[in-house]
Each structure stands twice: as structure tokens, then as C-alpha cells.
């Protein structure tokens, strides 16, 4: 027997002096109210009501039990209310600034369907980790080496000009003097999101190994400014294919670094909060990050 449901029926019927009216007030069929009250009487081993063809009245036993039954119903309703409030309390999640508005909106909507009211907070790599560490965010999607990451986002170089079907771009082709004076000014621009060792250092080492000048590999502070530089010149932006599509740039993988990628994982002070984020369909976060197909290894 569901004691709370039975007490709700008992309280409703006693308050209206009728099974029909009480059941309607409790939003249950009259037959259900009758069965629940009967089950409660059987459980207690005593009658709660005296019944007539037109009305019901509390017995002496029923009058003694009613206050406690009413408190139980009120407490159950309070628990349900508090649970609903807790479920809808914003769950602040630090996410990369590269997440585009539409995938981020889909993430929020999708999380709500799984009873998680996400409050995404875009931030740079170091700031995201700090937000989780200081509990300013419940959890954070942080940079991680691709081989150990939950999400892996392939990186390439994007420019304003259509490469004409070329499968890959070789950084060696940007070496000063390879293609005349214009090539001397060509740079590889890295976003703040890629200013992490497993991305930045690999690109710099590659540039050094193929003879690029140090000034040809640059970390920029603003994606907007970097995109403007690419649109106004022959510079190239290190980014994901999804980001290039959003910015209207032409993307190609890097010939010398076919495995170049951003890696992401979830961190939080609480294991429960990590599990809560990972309980979402992996593609919801994956699409925000630019993962092809949006999946993660545990999908």
C-alpha cells in the first residue's frame, strides 16, 4: 500500500464529506479513492468513516488519525516541491568560448529534457578550471590531452580562399621565401582556446621543424580579431571544421599533423556533479565543442 496516496484520499474525502467530491478534489477516480481508503482501514484494522448512501462521516478513530494523516500529506507535498525546486535549480557549467550559440542553446534544451537546468558559462581554458575549483561553477568542460579526453575535436587550418579541392595543407608551404613575398607575411593564428600545451606546443614545434619564423605562429587574444586578420589576408586560423563553417572559412587538415586535436573532459569538486554532466547524451556537449558526430567514448 502507498501510505501517502492513501492518506491523501482519506484527507480529501474527510474534508468534503463525500467520496465523489473528495476524489474529484484529489483528481483521482471515485473508485480509486474508495480502494485507497479501504486499504488504509485494513492497514490500521479500524474504520475511518461511517458510510451512508449520501455522505460519509468520520468515526472516532478517524478523527484521532486525521491530524497525523494531514501532516503526512503536507510533508509529502513539501518534499515534492523541494525536489522540483532542486531539480530546476540552475546547474552552472563552465564551457569553452568556442561553443557557438545554436549548439549551446540545443545543449540547454536537451539538458532540460533530462531534468538538468544548465546555466552555461563560456570561459577560456584556465578560467574554466578555476571556476570549477572555486565552486563558482558546479562543473567545467576543461582542456585535456586528446588521447585521454572524453571528447576529441580534430583541428586544421582555415583561410578565406577556397583551396580548390586540396585534401590537406602543409605548414611547410608557409615557409618564408617558398612562394614569393606574400608568403613572408602568412601566419598561423591560434585562438586562446588552443593556448594549451598539447595544442600550442605541437604547432610551434612543427613550425620550427619546417623552418617557419617564430612570429609566424601567433596566439591571439580574440577570435573576432583573428578572424578579421584571416579575412583580410592570407593568414590561416587553427580551428575545428565546425568553427570554420560558422565563420565562413575554408578548412583543411594539417598535412604534417593529421592527429592535431583539442581534447576535453569534465571536472568538478563533486563526483556526483561529474556524473550528472556525463549522464547527458554525449552528443549534446560534443556538438557544442565541434566533435564530428558529437559523440564521446562512453556513448
TrEMBL record:
Boundaries of every HTH lysR-type domain copy: 1-59
> What PROSITE patterns does this protein's entry cite?
HTH_LYSR
- Record-linked Pfam families: HTH_1
UniProt superkingdom: Bacteria
Which InterPro entries does the annotation name?
A: LysR_HTH_N (IPR000847), WH-like_DNA-bd_sf (IPR036388), WH_DNA-bd_sf (IPR036390)
Tell me if DNA-binding is a UniProt keyword of this record.
Answer: yes
Q: Does the keyword Ligase apply?
A: no
Sorted alphabetically, the keyword list is: DNA-binding, Transcription, Transcription regulation
Family recorded in the similarity comment: Belongs to the LysR transcriptional regulatory family.
Report the PANTHER family cross-referenced here.
HTH-TYPE TRANSCRIPTIONAL REGULATOR CYNR (PTHR30346:SF28), TRANSCRIPTIONAL DUAL REGULATOR HCAR-RELATED (PTHR30346)
* Name of the protein in its database record: LysR family transcriptional regulator
Species for this entry? Saccharothrix xinjiangensis
Taxonomic lineage from the root = Bacteria, Bacillati, Actinomycetota, Actinomycetes, Pseudonocardiales
Amino acid at each position: 500500500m502507498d501510505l501517502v496516496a492513501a492518506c491523501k484520499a482519506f484527507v480529501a474525502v474527510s474534508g468534503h464529506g463525500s467520496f465523489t467530491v473528495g476524489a474529484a478534489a484529489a483528481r483521482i477516480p471515485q473508485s480509486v479513492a474508495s480502494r485507497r481508503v479501504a486499504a488504509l482501514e485494513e492497514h490500521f484494522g479500524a474504520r475511518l468513516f461511517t458510510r451512508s448512501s449520501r455522505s460519509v462521516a468520520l468515526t472516532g478513530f478517524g478523527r484521532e488519525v486525521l491530524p497525523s494523516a494531514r501532516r503526512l500529506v503536507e510533508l509529502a507535498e513539501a518534499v515534492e516541491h523541494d525536489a522540483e525546486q532542486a531539480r530546476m535549480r540552475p546547474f552552472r557549467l563552465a564551457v569553452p568560448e568556442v561553443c557557438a550559440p545554436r549548439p549551446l542553446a540545443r545543449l540547454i534544451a536537451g539538458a532540460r529534457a533530462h531534468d538538468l537546468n544548465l546555466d552555461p558559462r563560456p570561459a577560456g581554458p584556465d578560467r574554466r578550471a578555476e571556476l570549477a575549483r572555486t565552486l563558482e561553477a558546479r562543473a567545467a568542460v576543461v582542456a585535456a590531452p586528446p588521447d585521454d579526453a572524453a571528447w576529441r575535436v580534430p583541428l586544421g587550418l582555415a583561410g578565406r580562399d577556397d583551396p580548390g579541392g586540396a585534401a590537406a595543407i602543409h605548414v611547410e608551404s608557409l615557409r618564408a621565401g617558398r612562394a614569393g613575398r606574400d608568403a613572408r607575411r602568412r601566419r598561423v593564428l591560434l585562438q586562446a582556446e588552443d593556448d594549451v600545451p598539447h595544442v600550442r606546443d605541437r604547432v610551434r614545434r612543427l613550425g620550427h621543424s619546417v623552418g617557419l619564423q617564430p612570429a609566424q605562429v601567433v596566439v591571439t587574444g580574440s577570435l573576432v580579431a583573428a578572424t578579421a586578420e584571416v579575412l583580410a589576408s592570407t593568414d590561416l586560423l587553427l580551428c575545428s571544421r565546425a568553427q570554420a563553417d560558422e565563420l565562413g572559412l575554408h578548412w583543411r587538415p594539417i598535412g604534417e599533423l593529421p592527429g592535431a586535436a583539442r581534447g576535453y573532459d569534465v571536472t568538478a569538486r563533486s563526483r556526483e556533479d561529474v556524473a550528472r554532466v556525463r549522464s547527458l547524451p554525449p552528443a549534446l556537449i560534443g556538438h557544442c565543442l565541434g566533435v564530428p558526430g558529437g559523440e564521446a567514448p562512453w556513448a
